[in-house]
Design brief:
heterodimer; A: about 350 residues
Chain lengths: ~350, ~170
């Protein structure tokens, strides 16, 4: 094998490379320029963009990610805003919901495969009347109950009948099948509304349905708010009557319009206050009790936990939620990346054309 | 950092000539070295951590040259032949010595870039194999094999085939 002589190579390269003069002024100029650039304040983002190679690519990647998140998160948030209970397996059946009179009350909505959601605000056949006592108390509570496997539906039936017996009703209910359950619900949540007077009795009765794991109840005295609202409405009604009287005496069009404007404002205010009063009335008439029913080994989202158990379940739930979020985000992110990639390619082509013309 | 500035000033001529041998054009070489020096200045904190600054700076120069050869020069429409390697050679004398130089340089220009770079760094910039490995971001073994391959190809080049010494032949002394 023949090899070129190293001495010849060295000599030839030196002669070729040293054939022209290199001005040292150019080097001095470059170093001066670098020092000037160093002294000149450069904005953070601009400095990063000027960084060559990997740093610039990383910055571009982070920028793309931020854009993707800015687009994706609102979209994902919009979709996830709808609470759903997913029921695995066959189409789910809900326990019949009835009023105290025993007539069916609720509507059942089946969405997709096994999604169950019920909701009803209709009150029928109850003997409860608006509370007129001077004391206005609103009561709420949450109870977690564990029942034997396959007994969730019967527990729902019992809870419905308990609410009916106390002159209350079922506000809403949700039931779900866990992965280990076959043909029956493994957990569910039912919201009962009963007259305030029956609340304590209902709490005691619900605890007998199964093994109670947690009970949380609270009461709030809203008498002052109620009285204030009532007084305000009365005063507004007096004002309204006065304006109505003025209206009958008004002769000019401008006067009539001015009075009419005032009447409209007062009526609007009365309606708003009356709406709030009605809500307070309902909340103080009916107490709200949320019952989470689950079989052993399952739990509903609102079951109270503590310590490591809570931390572990929160962690698992967070992981699953995060993964779901990532999957939801993938679509918008891919779209954004596609758009950014296209823009980048177009920019590069334009830049190359410009540079080609310069050289 | 003043040391770096000093090195850049002192090393500028040799860097330009090294780039010239790699790129084959003086104007491109000056552009490449200017760009390389600006890069080196921006990353001077990283340079300060290096035990050997010289090969690291050559690495910046070589990377810039590679970038120009890969992206810019092939797409160029206008060309400045005045500062080409060939033009420089043609301007020189046509004595035997310069003829030999011209042959070597033409053979060098025909080498693939990755081989040309190691030849220039070894026989012009006078870096050792370990320093060249740093400068091109490869292992010393790769440098060794590339140098071997480059020398073999140069010897096989038509312009140099006759002048290469044959290891099998023995000098006859009279």
């Amino acid at each position: 094998m023949t090899m070129i002589d190293e001495a010849v190579l060295v000599s030839a390269l030196k002669e070729t490379a040293d054939a022209f003069d290199v001005s040292s002024e150019a080097a001095q100029r470059i170093v001066d320029q670098m020092r000037e650039d160093e002294q000149a304040p450069v904005a953070g983002v601009t400095r990063i963009i000027r960084q060559p190679g990997r740093a610039r690519h990383m910055f571009m990647g982070v920028a793309a990610l931020v854009v993707a998140l800015a687009v994706g998160v609102p979209l994902a948030g919009h979709e996830s805003a709808k609470p759903r209970t997913i029921v695995h397996g066959a189409a789910a059946k809900l326990p019949p919901r009835t009023t105290s009179a025993g007539t069916p009350l609720s509507e059942t909505t089946l969405s997709g495969r096994g999604f169950v959601s019920t909701n009803s605000k209709t009150i029928q056949g109850t003997s409860a009347s608006n509370s007129t006592t001077s004391e206005k108390i609103e009561s709420t509570g949450t109870i977690a109950v564990t029942v034997a496997s396959g007994r969730v539906q019967s527990a729902f039936n019992k809870l419905s009948s308990l609410a009916g017996r106390d002159h209350g009703f079922v506000d809403s209910s949700q039931a779900a099948m866990g992965s280990r359950a076959h043909g029956s619900f493994s957990s569910g949540t039912i919201v009962l509304e009963v007259p305030q007077a029956s609340f304590k009795l209902l709490v005691a009765q619900v605890q007998e349905i199964g093994h109670t794991t947690s009970v949380v109840t609270s009461s709030n005295d809203v008498t002052s708010q109620y009285v204030d609202l009532q007084a305000r409405i009365d005063a507004l009604k007096v004002s309204l009557n006065q304006y109505l009287k003025i209206m009958t005496r008004a002769t000019s069009i401008s006067g009539i319009l001015a009075v009419q404007n005032q009447i409209n404002q007062i009526q609007s205010q009365i309606e708003q206050d009356q709406g709030q009063l009605n809500v307070l009335n309902h909340e103080t008439t009916y107490a709200n009790l949320t019952v989470n029913v689950a079989t052993p080994g399952h739990h509903t989202a609102s079951t109270s936990r503590s310590g490591l158990n809570k931390a572990w379940h929160d962690s698992v739930s967070g992981f699953v939620a995060g993964f779901e979020w990532l999957v939801r985000l993938a679509g918008p992110v891919l779209f954004v990346l596609l758009v950014l990639g296209t823009l980048y390619m177009l920019g590069m082509l334009a830049w190359r054309n410009i540079r080609r013309r310069r050289i | 950092m003043d040391d770096l500035a000093q090195w850049l000033e002192e090393g500028y001529p040799q860097s330009v000539r090294t780039a010239y041998l790699i790129l084959g054009n003086r104007a491109d070489a000056e552009d490449a070295v200017q760009e390389a020096f600006l890069r080196a200045w921006k990353f001077r904190d990283a340079i300060a951590k290096e035990t050997s600054v010289r090969p690291w700076l050559y690495r910046v120069v070589v990377n810039t040259c590679n970038s120009k050869l890969r992206q810019e020069i092939p797409r160029r429409e206008r060309h400045d032949p005045e500062h080409d390697l060939d033009a420089t050679l043609a301007d020189n004398d046509t004595t035997d010595r310069f003829a030999a130089t011209s042959d070597v340089t033409r053979a060098l220009k025909d080498l693939p870039v990755h081989l040309r770079v190691v030849v220039v760094l070894r026989y012009y910039a006078e870096l050792n194999e370990r320093e060249i490995a740093i400068a091109i971001g490869r292992k010393p073994g790769t440098v060794k094999s590339r140098l071997h391959e480059a020398r073999r190809r140069l010897a096989d080049h038509p312009a140099l085939r006759d002048s290469a010494p044959d290891p099998n032949s023995e000098e006859v002394s009279g």
